Amino acid sequence: AQKVTQAQTEISVVEKEDVTLDCVYETRDTTYYLFWYKQPPSGELVFLIRRNSFDEQNEISGRYSWNFQKSTSSFNFTITASQVVDSAVYFCALSEGLKGDEKLTFGTGTRLTIIP
Amino acid sequence: DTGVSQDPRHKITKRGQNVTFRCDPISEHNRLYWYRQTLGQGPEFLTYFQNEAQLEKSRLLSDRFSAERPKGSFSTLEIQRTEQGDSAMYLCASRGSTADTQYFGPGTRLTVL
Questions:
Q1: Which of A29, A108, B34, B103 has its CA 20 to 30 A from that of A46?
Q2: Which value, in Å, is the radius of gyration of the alpha carbons in chain A?
Q3: Which of A6, A44, A108 should we substitute to test contact with B (largest number of B Cβ atoms within 10 Å)?
């Protein structure tokens, strides 16, 4: 069965600090997709990134970067030079299968608070 | 594209009443998903449709829950004889065949008194 674990329930950092959100996943499939979503106070889930199991290259998008390591079944998310607008709940999710269009299994989320 | 829309945004009902929620996906998206999110938890999968066909249902979806997508466009989720444990945010998402991921609507927050 697939499972996603986000061990950090809440994190608070001072603005401009870097912060890393951890995500560990379990799956029996060799083909799967990993995702990060952001849920701001408004409640709507915002898609951040998708990565498939065959692509272990790290990705950077502005202040955001993602580190995918199959050896440790982890897909961690780093925000560099954090800003108050980054305050939100962040979810890591997993989808099994070839196309990645099956159901998403989410972790319990990490609530990130950026202190001005 | 306009995003996924859900109606109503909030619903308060008394235990034992029936409720129905509507989801309008992004135009041309053939896949539509329903999730439920309780306080402090991540969304949990309920069911999904490809066009009008319901392809998978979670064990979370008891016989009091039914979902339809009759013409392969909008979808409805009905809960019969609501219970306090049904109080949650009900999220709808859609995905097209060329899209990267599922795109979520704003959700319907259900409170059962």
A1: A29
A2: 14
A3: A44
